[in-house]
């Protein structure tokens, strides 16, 4: 069973509350754009592709809320600005919102229809991208291979099979035997969500702590590490969940291939390298408390939500167009081919 993180019907955006997983399966119905913005900020919905899709539907709901008390286009800019200011790192959110701006006109009803069609298109496009990334990942998944993944780049973070997990779902459907180690990913434990969703699908997955990943690389015959991403710079540097960098360093040390599942909407060709990408700093309570239980002393806390993995540590970027080198030349060539 693959859980759907996002559903939209007749002006209501229903989000699977990922802060309640894996213990409870609860949903949040959003009928105003502020609630959508809060759902993104509080990570009720999370994952780069998922927050892009959600933001697009947030614009739809904002348009449906319009009551005529100010100029419609100015009002819609306010809606888009609010949603743009939720989370700064995943480029998918800004990419989706940028596309909504292109369909907004003075005609309210025409705009609502156009926005609903666009949001649905972005959702369906993500499903297609998931499936195509999965197909390009499949050749890596030989019988009895072993993988490590980090955070949750799965069905919960996207519209369908996920990015780094898509190949796992397709290989499982072909009854290829393989196993996955999923590190829990402190402080928000998104990796535990990966273990949850893969186990729900019947995939052989083992949860480990983040600090166990190097030991698994040392002791197991790991085929590859496959992770997701939140933004890929022009030079192939990757920003992903905090903890990705040390995993990449350990993989390099143990000569294990390190792949990043990278949908093209997650590339940002306007930034030359990873250090130009804004890294979200989240609430320190994420580190000091677990389910309201205090687990840290009253000292300073540093809680960046993402880190920067340099292209030199990356074996390949698994895009929906195939696996490419994490290098500017390969990325530039890919986007030129896409545009052609
Ligand atoms: C395909 S999901 C990509 C990416 O998004 C996650 O971030 P967050 O859980 O903070 O929204 C994580 O970094 C995943 O790897």
Automatic annotation (TrEMBL):
<comment type="pathway">
    <text>Amino-acid biosynthesis; L-methionine biosynthesis via salvage pathway; L-methionine from S-methyl-5-thio-alpha-D-ribose 1-phosphate: step 1/6.</text>
</comment>
<keyword id="KW-0486">Methionine biosynthesis</keyword>
<feature type="binding site">
    <location>
        <begin position="46"/>
        <end position="48"/>
    </location>
    <ligand>
        <name>substrate</name>
    </ligand>
</feature>
<comment type="function">
    <text>Catalyzes the interconversion of methylthioribose-1-phosphate (MTR-1-P) into methylthioribulose-1-phosphate (MTRu-1-P).</text>
</comment>
<dbReference type="InterPro" id="IPR027363">
    <property type="entry name" value="M1Pi_N"/>
</dbReference>
<dbReference type="GO" id="GO:0046523">
    <property type="term" value="F:S-methyl-5-thioribose-1-phosphate isomerase activity"/>
</dbReference>
<dbReference type="InterPro" id="IPR000649">
    <property type="entry name" value="IF-2B-related"/>
</dbReference>
<feature type="active site" description="Proton donor">
    <location>
        <position position="230"/>
    </location>
</feature>
<dbReference type="InterPro" id="IPR037171">
    <property type="entry name" value="NagB/RpiA_transferase-like"/>
</dbReference>
<feature type="binding site">
    <location>
        <position position="190"/>
    </location>
    <ligand>
        <name>substrate</name>
    </ligand>
</feature>
<dbReference type="InterPro" id="IPR011559">
    <property type="entry name" value="Initiation_fac_2B_a/b/d"/>
</dbReference>
<keyword id="KW-0028">Amino-acid biosynthesis</keyword>
<dbReference type="GO" id="GO:0019509">
    <property type="term" value="P:L-methionine salvage from methylthioadenosine"/>
</dbReference>
<protein>
    <recommendedName>
        <fullName>Methylthioribose-1-phosphate isomerase</fullName>
        <ecNumber>5.3.1.23</ecNumber>
    </recommendedName>
</protein>
<keyword id="KW-0413">Isomerase</keyword>
<comment type="similarity">
    <text>Belongs to the EIF-2B alpha/beta/delta subunits family. MtnA subfamily.</text>
</comment>
<feature type="binding site">
    <location>
        <position position="87"/>
    </location>
    <ligand>
        <name>substrate</name>
    </ligand>
</feature>
<dbReference type="InterPro" id="IPR042529">
    <property type="entry name" value="IF_2B-like_C"/>
</dbReference>
<feature type="binding site">
    <location>
        <begin position="240"/>
        <end position="241"/>
    </location>
    <ligand>
        <name>substrate</name>
    </ligand>
</feature>
<dbReference type="InterPro" id="IPR005251">
    <property type="entry name" value="IF-M1Pi"/>
</dbReference>
<feature type="site" description="Transition state stabilizer">
    <location>
        <position position="151"/>
    </location>
</feature>
<dbReference type="Pfam" id="PF01008">
    <property type="entry name" value="IF-2B"/>
</dbReference>
């Amino acid at each position: 069973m693959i859980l759907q993180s996002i559903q939209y019907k007749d002006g209501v955006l229903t989000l699977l509350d990922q802060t309640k997983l894996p213990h409870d399966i609860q949903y949040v119905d959003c009928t105003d754009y502020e609630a959508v913005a809060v759902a993104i900020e509080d990570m009720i919905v999370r994952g780069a592709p998922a927050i892009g899709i959600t933001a697009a539907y947030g614009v739809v709901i904002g348009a449906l809320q319009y009551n005529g008390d100010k100029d419609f286009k100015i009002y819609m800019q306010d809606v888009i600005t609010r949603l743009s200011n939720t989370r700064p790192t995943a480029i998918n959110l800004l990419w989706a919102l940028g596309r909504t701006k292109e369909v907004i006109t003075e005609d309210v009803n025409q705009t609502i229809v156009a926005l609903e069609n666009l949001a649905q298109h972005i959702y369906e496009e993500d499903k297609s991208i998931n499936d195509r990334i999965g197909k390009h990942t499949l050749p890596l998944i030989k019988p009895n291979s072993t993988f490590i993944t980090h955070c949750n780049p799965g069905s919960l973070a996207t519209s369908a099979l996920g990015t780094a997990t898509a190949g796992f779902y397709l290989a499982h459907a072909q009854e290829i035997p393989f196993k996955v180690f999923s590190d829990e990913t402190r402080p928000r434990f998104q990796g535990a969500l990966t273990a949850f969703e893969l186990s729900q699908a019947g995939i052989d997955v083992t949860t480990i702590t983040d600090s166990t990943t190097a030991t698994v690389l040392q002791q197991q015959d790991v085929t590859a590490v496959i992770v997701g991403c939140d933004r890929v710079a022009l030079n192939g540097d990757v920003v992903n969940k905090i903890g990705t960098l040390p995993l990449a360093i350990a993989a390099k040390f143990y000569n294990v291939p390190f792949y990043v599942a990278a949908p093209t909407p997650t590339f940002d060709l306007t930034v030359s390298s990873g250090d130009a990408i804004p890294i979200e700093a989240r609430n320190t309570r994420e580190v000091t408390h677990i389910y309201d239980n205090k687990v840290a002393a009253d000292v300073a806390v540093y809680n960046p939500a993402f880190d920067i993995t340099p292209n030199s540590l990356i074996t390949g970027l698994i895009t929906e167009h195939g696996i490419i080198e994490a290098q500017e030349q390969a990325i530039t060539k890919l986007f030129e081919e896409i545009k052609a």
